[in-house]
Amino acid sequence: xxxxxxxxxxxxxxxxxxxxxxxxxxxxxxxxxxxxxxxxxxxxxxxxxxxxxxxxxxxxxxxxxxxxxxxxxxxxxxxxxxxxxxxxxxxxxxxxxxxxxxxxxxxxxxxxx
Length: 113
Hints:
With 113 residues, the chain is α+β, with helices and mostly antiparallel strands. The chain has helices at 21-31, 60-65, 73-76; strands spanning 2-9, 37-45, 50-57, 82-87. It has a 4-stranded antiparallel sheet. The two termini are 22 Å apart.
């Protein structure tokens, strides 16, 4: 599994986290249909005027092959300021549980143990 974190610095942009809410509302349904995307979380920090997302993918290949909806870059007025990829070593929680155990290994399918 791979995680990607990306954000924009909105300091010099006309957009704010609040004005981008309608963008998120319009786009979130499209993100829900992307094969290989396990979770997307939109994030913001009003104090630093950062806005972006954390994405959890089944694999690097799934992320590479995905056809993504529109980017907010045009609306914000510049490309993403920060993007980094990470290996996911463990997950928990109802949305991602079962993809990896705390050891970082995929659990055996039920009934095959």
